[in-house]
Amino acid sequence: MSASRKKLKLNVLTFALMLREFQSGPTSSKDIVEITGYQRHTVTNYLRVLHDKGCIHIVGYEEDAFGRQRAPVYALGAGKDVPRRPPLAYSITNARWRERQKFREMQERLAA
Q1: Is 40 helix (H, G, I), strand (E, B) or coil?
Q2: For the segment 29-81, what is each residue's pLDDT rounded down to a tens digit?
Q3: Least enclosed by CB within 10 Å: which of 30, 62, 69, 92?
Q4: Strand 56-63 relative to strand 27-28: parallel, antiparallel, unpaired?
C-alpha cells in the first residue's frame, strides 16, 4: 500500500449492512449510503477496495438526468465488468439541445 493512501477500516455492522444489500441484488453506492448513513465518498472508497479485491463486480451503470452513465451498479462475487458505453457524438448532443430550445420557444409563444 502506498504512503499516500490511507488504510480503510470497515466496521462489522457496516460490512453486514453492505453484505445484506448485495445479497438482495445489484446495488449502487447511493443505496449503500442510504442504509449505512456514511457519506458517498466513504462508501465509494469501500466499494472501490471491494472491487479491486474481486469481491464485487460492475453489472451496469445508473444514468443521470442527461442520460450519462455515472454511478456503477455492483453485484456480489467475481465477474466480468460491464463496460461503459461510449459518449454520444457532439453532433447528436447539439441536435438534442436545439430540439429542446425549439420546444421551449414554442411553449413561451403559446404562453404569451
Answers
A1: helix
A2: 999 999 888 899 989 998 998 999 999 999 999 988 777 888 999 999 989 99
A3: 92
A4: unpaired
Pick the CATH number of 12-82 from 3.10.310.10, 1.10.10.10, 1.10.599.10, 2.30.110.10: 1.10.10.10
pTM of the entire structure?
A: 0.69
> Can you tell me the distance from the alpha carbon of 22 to that of 50, in angstroms, rounded to the nearest whole number?
12
Q: 46's torsion region: left (phi>0), alpha (psi -120 to 50) or beta?
A: alpha
Spatial CB neighbours of 57, under 8 Å, sequence gap ≥ 6 = 51, 74, 75, 77, 78, 79, 80, 81
Q: What is the rounded CA–CA span in Å between residue 1 and residue 7?
A: 8
pLDDT at 2: 53
- Please state the φ and ψ torsions of residue 57, each to the nearest 5 degrees: -140, 160
